[in-house]
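Need a sequence for this fold. Nothing fancy.
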């Protein structure tokens, strides 16, 4: 006890611990203490900073400023969205962009009013017109071979079509069809020019899909060839068993099939007619379907 008082040692263990800590603190280099303090402050700064600090210097921000700060860059997107909606509404309600003029070129058999009805764009806004869709709708009709649709700003639409030209008028068991060169059939709408006529007492045309041939194209060509040889005064008849023929003014039916050289067949027919007249045979039917096996009865 006397030694402790003489040498100045602490009287208790707690005092001795505090004394040792005090000596360590005094011996710590000044630059190390500064470095530790800076690191503690940097750590606190990192933990507490997530955005940009804005100083208002004691003044309250107005409501719009709070909104801008809250939304950040998103306010630009909201503004663009609102402007787009407003522009769409203006375009939809503006008469300046409403389709009022529809130009039609090339329509004869269907007629311009029928074309406009199929297009279905009267009164629509020009930016709502889909040219490719209208073209497909038009070309799905057998009367139309091709269609081209163009939109001219602000409200003009032009429709140019190429129609199928009928070359035969075919009475198919009581229903009259116009037949094009590629054997596509469509109903008569307007009065076509005078056409070669074919009659079949029973229905023989295969009317299924609108754009499918209703009969073999070579059959159409045979009809045209025979018609050109017999003249306009004769209507042709078609029988699925005997092909094309006509009613001879002397009272019998003459048939020539659907194949072969019709000119040679007509020459053979003329020889048979001469025999019939010379011998006064009462014929009712003459067949030149096969030129090498012609017959009459």
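Here you go.
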């Amino acid at each position: 006890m006397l030694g402790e008082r003489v040498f100045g040692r602490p009287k208790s263990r707690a005092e001795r611990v505090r004394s040792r800590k005090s000596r360590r603190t005094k011996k710590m280099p000044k630059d190390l203490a500064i470095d530790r303090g800076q690191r503690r402050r940097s750590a606190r700064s990192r933990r507490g900073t997530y955005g940009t600090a804005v100083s208002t210097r004691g003044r309250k921000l107005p409501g719009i400023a709070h909104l801008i700060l809250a939304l950040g860059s998103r306010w630009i997107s909201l503004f663009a969205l609102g402007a787009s909606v407003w522009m769409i509404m203006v375009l939809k309600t503006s008469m300046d962009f409403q389709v009022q003029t529809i130009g039609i070129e090339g329509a004869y058999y269907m007629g311009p009013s029928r074309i406009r009805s199929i297009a279905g764009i009267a009164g629509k806004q020009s930016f709502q017109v889909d040219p490719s869709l209208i073209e497909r709708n038009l070309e799905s009709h057998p009367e139309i071979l091709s269609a081209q649709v163009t939109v001219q700003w602000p409200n003009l639409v032009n429709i140019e079509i190429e129609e199928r030209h009928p070359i035969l008028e075919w009475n198919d068991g009581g229903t009259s069809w116009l037949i094009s060169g590629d054997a596509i059939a469509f109903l008569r709408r307007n009065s076509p020019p005078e056409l070669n006529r074919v009659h079949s007492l029973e229905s023989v045309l295969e009317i299924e899909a609108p754009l499918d041939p209703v009969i073999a194209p070579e059959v159409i060509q045979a009809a045209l060839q025979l018609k050109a040889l017999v003249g306009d005064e004769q209507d042709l008849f078609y029988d699925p068993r005997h092909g094309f023929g006509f009613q001879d003014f002397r009272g019998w039916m003459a048939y020539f099939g659907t194949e072969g050289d019709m000119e040679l067949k007509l020459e053979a027919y003329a020889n048979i007619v001469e025999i019939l007249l010379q011998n006064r045979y009462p014929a009712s039917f003459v067949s030149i379907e096969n030129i090498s096996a012609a017959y009459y009865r």
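For context: The two ends are 163 Å apart (CA to CA).
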